[in-house]
Amino acid sequence: MSRRSLATAAVILTLGAGVAAAQQPGSAQRCGWLDNPTPGNASLYDKDGEWTIAVQGGHQAKGDWPPPYKAGEWRKSGNGSYGYGCACMTVKVDAEEKNVLEIVSAKARPLAACRKDKALSEVEKTLR
Question: What is residue 24's predicted lDDT score, i.e. its pLDDT?
């Protein structure tokens, strides 16, 4: 295993409500705003800032996103179905680069959950 891989594994953080019992080793739960503004581009904003999920023509995390949202819980911005919502994701990350490497699971949350989180209160304004 490379030194970078060891460092990445060592700095994976556990955030949000806690780690789910069925979570895979080396993964952590991160909760915040999931932003998918255009095709192939997505980020998760949590209390530690922006985590890149995908960049069109570049980095793409393994796994499925976005999770299914209930009516009214996904805010469209721009064209098509692109927009943002609140989510918790069990992910593997490269903390140094702030990239999501793999999405193990993802669950939509009510918009109110992110709006009530003081660490995320200003982020939604930048997503509109």
Answer: 58
